[in-house]
Amino acid sequence: MWSVQIEDVEAIDIESTTFCNLHCPECNRETDIGNLIRVLNTVHLTAEDMRNWIKPDELINLTEIRFCGAIDESAANPHLFDIINYFNDKFARHNKMFFIDIRTNGSLKTTAWWKELAQTLPSNHSVSFGIDGSDEVSEQYRVGSSFKKVINNATAFIKAGGSAEWQFIEFEHNKHQIDEAQQKAKALGFNSFEVMTSSRDNISGEIEHVTKQDVEPVQSFKGTKNPNKDYSATRKNKKDYEKQHKLLGDEEGKVIHKHGAKLLAKKAYTEKIKITCENQTVMGNRILINSLGYVTPCCFLNGYIHFPHDRDIRVSQEPHLPEFQFFEDLPLNEIYLKHGLKSISLYHNTLKEILAGEFWEDIEDSWTSDNPINRCHDVCGKMITDETKIFAHWDDNY
What we know:
This protein is α/β, with parallel strands linked by helices. Helices cover 30% and strands 21% of the residues.
């Protein structure tokens, strides 16, 4: 069973729509358009969906809603105010610490709409505006946006009492504007300024990404399949054995002579990847509900979950198409083929049933297997050192 059950959930990310007005070159909407084409700009979640799915008597520890997904722009959802009012009534009214966070490109709607948003949100809130430059340079990545309009909208929101954050994604083309943007954010009344280093691949062909020196990249290679196994090194394989394992220290314990051989117990330090889901730890027992009604552990897996939905629609219309497979993530593909997306759909199951179901259980079980989900391994896998005793049988005369 998944470690975080419904009564443990503290935060929910909601991808409230499949609509967005921009064409950022490295967004899933652009890079995976072949898989997403029939999903994009088709669906808005509603307040009725929230009433059916997110219930205060079940989510007794829920204290945060964040409107943020893989393919959405929250301001594009015409039901957003109704959704916020549902959370105001059912959660924020009874808990002053209840927090609503919205991530937006800020380039939709009028200043009047943004004033109304500030007045609709609970007192404990934040709206993060994605502005990747101190002027029109921001439009280089935020293709289709207007820097001037974003600033006007953000200013109207702030003046109406809204709490705003300036989120700056750092690229090679805009890093020289960070200090200027930070000063502008302070002058305009933003409560905070955040610089994010892009982890996206440089597939636009025009943007050279910057990696901060103080950010430790996640290792992308897998550790030893059985790091706790006791290995026996014979005369034949001793050299290979020592190449694979760094043996430190002197012999421990007694040297045992048996049939003309020594049994040596030595410390060995092996490295392996340990997967610890950040959404179950540092992010505060967080889950994600996407725009199609599927529940996923995080935004990283959410990006994949959209794909088979589109293919399932197409197969129903074009039976000659092959069954969908996550070619880049075979362990996830096995889980998908075993259970199907219906098992994690809120249109077919309750949230409680999904979190207690086998789809999520198999995701977590994969983390300690020899074949973990690749996305989990790459994003939440951390290299750790494992100390074991290695028993080596070596010939006395070697």
